[in-house]
């Protein structure tokens, strides 16, 4: 089955749009992204790695190829001593070319993405922050992406600024906050956040990153209720973490002591993704994808769960028996006995870590925009600055 039309035409027709997964974490694990700055120079430096990940998500069922431009604003690329051999324009252009190349191999659309900026956290002016978004936007217009996404915003104010810049192109605009049911970092509720984004010009609103799938679905449900109560209309999207986060505070998984190098025990199974996809669909979300931790097999699970609604299975399902059916061919009889849906749906996976707790205590320093600790700098973090942080960490 081939989709036709723009992102809004597809959503207006009631089609399910499946997003891709998490590039930053996936490419960090593969050795192409540095944890800390999390910047996407791999698009220009190692295009083959980015291209291959796009292709795997396409094969898994995604029909949106999002440009690998997360944290590709000039102020982030130059933050805290980060030294790159590519300009922001080069990275953004390379990312657009890779996304378009792979999108054209299937029926996918290309989405150009901007995200929150160090300048906003450092209390720069609205004019300064909008100028940063505009530089990325100029590349997206030049490369003629199909639509635009403002994603990973902790503060609705900055997200509104981003939407106001993006909508100037006349292209469809989606906006995602990285918030949970408690709202943004200044306490604005999900419903009110969504209303502000829709009034700013976003036609698609939702949540990405920071929280697990069910938490994000709940936050988007609150957004939907807020928009409808205000008498407005929008489409809804969700692209959560692939990690369980029941113990997170309002800042999400970055407060967890396991972030970012010890999160693997929290990873959702493919069967968890079936439940997520169904719940998202049931609350009225039609743009369903993933963020950090989402690998192609997670997206395949989303596509398989929603195959009845979409009318087809993804290409990657050729190598995956429905609900473990491929295990019927296993050599061991006790494994063949697991070739059934009720086994996998009801499994409670063990971690194999007898000394570990099931929950953590988030750090929760309570720092957000406007706080002196979040003032950013182009110079590398000094040893004295690190010592102060180490000492403070020990006191928490």
UniProtKB/TrEMBL annotation:
GO molecular function terms noted in the UniProt entry: betaine-homocysteine S-methyltransferase activity; zinc ion binding
Example of a GO cellular component annotation carried by this entry: cytosol
Cofactor: Zn(2+)
Binding residues annotated for Zn(2+), in chain numbering: 209, 291-292
Keywords: Metal-binding, Methyltransferase, Transferase, Zinc
Pfam families per record: S-methyl_trans
Hcy-binding domain span: 5-306
Purpose of the protein: Involved in the regulation of homocysteine metabolism.
UniProt-listed PANTHER family: BETAINE--HOMOCYSTEINE S-METHYLTRANSFERASE 1, HCY-BINDING DOMAIN-CONTAINING PROTEIN
Protein name: Betaine--homocysteine S-methyltransferase 1-like
Organism the protein comes from: Sphaeramia orbicularis
Gene: LOC115425478
